[in-house]
Amino acid sequence: MKQYVFTIIFTATVTFVLAWAVWRLALKYKLYPGIRERDVHKNPTPRLGGLAMYLGVLAMFAVSAQHPFFAIVWTNPQQIWAILGATTLIVLVGVADDLWDLDWMIKLGAQFLAAGVIAWFGELQIYSLPIGGLAVGSSWVSFTLTVFSIVVVMNAVNFIDGLDGLVAGVCLIANSVFFAYSYLLWRDQGASTYFNLASLIAAVLIGACIGFLPLNWSPAKLFMGDSGALMLGLLMACSAIAVTGNLNPAVVGDNDEFGRSQLLGAFIPILLPVVVVMLPLLDFGLAVVRRMSKGKSPFSPDRKHLHHRMLDMGHSDRDAVLIFYAWTAIVSLAFLLMYIGTTEEWPGDYLLGVAFGVVGAAACLVVTLTPSRVRTASPSAHSPRLEPAR
């Protein structure tokens, strides 16, 4: 565990220092776009924070290559190099978009290429689903399923990047829960070491988000841009696939107790990686349906994302961000408790009671924080907030 703590602290420190440097340099050389019609912020703000996060991630992987404790994840260096190569590609395209607003087809093509590099050259694919030993039918099905999964998660994370501190905080919470899950999963498998690629990626992302948040908290001095949001989505997808796509269904147990039944236990390894990004996925799905039903591109900007709806309900920017944090934390923790319950042989009634209690607390919290009526405003203050597309 000490090595994981070092990973988080090192990545956070490097990311924070580089983010501060990027912010200062961007202001000095005016490396930021002008205010666009769909932007929320009032003053020109650099959108190159993702570059600092990427360099922080890269620095930690460079350290891991030299440290004996991390040698286990470098036993298959091709996989690491494929992930880093794909990450580099997506960050470069993201930086170009943050500076010059690339066409969405170029960005989407780069996303599929990056996902293809991971699935093909890195051989990090969804080979099986932990439901009764269900295996993916063929190599092409596995490759296609993996590529589409990575692209969907990338865009889901990118789509919620509309408020100061939103993506960094949500991803910090999600990766913290997923880190705990992957760590416990390796423990329950009886592995000789709890160190694994999924946990390393999650720890690195936790550090990157911690290091970036001080400059991104409202009012933000620096945005992560597409380069940061797409990188977070890409690495989160890789972390989930490294666990779920190769999980042995025997891990979940096979006795007759409901808490350890195949029905419940087998689905948790699939559901938890999805749940930790549930809000981004929900927002992404609604946006695609909404835009395509109007004959528009699924990537055309609008102001109907979940965070925009919260602002319209009368929440301040910070209130909306904190509610997203609460939703992410409570729902993902509920599923983590369900996993812990299956491995600790909790009685079924007790397990469900805990899970529903946590979800109920989440509902009460959200209701408490929701304004009773929409805030009234003057016509000038009631102008629409459009997607910043950072």
Describe the structure.
This protein has one domain (2-31, 46-369). Helices cover 66% and strands 1% of the residues. The chain is built from 13 helices and 2 strands; from the N terminus they run H-H-H-H-E-E-H-H-H-H-H-H-H-H-H. The chain has helices at 2-28, 49-66, 77-100, 104-120, 139-159, 166-188, 197-216, 225-244, 262-275, 278-293, 306-313, 317-343, 348-369; strands at residues 128-129, 134-135. It has a two-stranded antiparallel ribbon with strand order 1-2. Helix 6 (166-188) packs antiparallel against helix 7.
Q: Helix segment count?
A: 13
Task: Count structural domains.
Answer: 1
Helix fraction by DSSP (H/I, runs of at least 4): 55-70%
Number of strands: 2
User: Within the largest sheet, what's the order of strands?
Assistant: 1-2
Q: What is the N-to-C succession of helices and strands?
A: HHHHEEHHHHHHHHH
> Average pLDDT, to the nearest integer?
76
Overview features:
390 residues; mainly alpha; two-stranded antiparallel sheet; 2 strands; globular; disordered C terminus
Write a brief structural summary.
This is Decaprenyl-phosphate N-acetylglucosaminephosphotransferase. The protein has 390 residues and is an all-alpha fold.
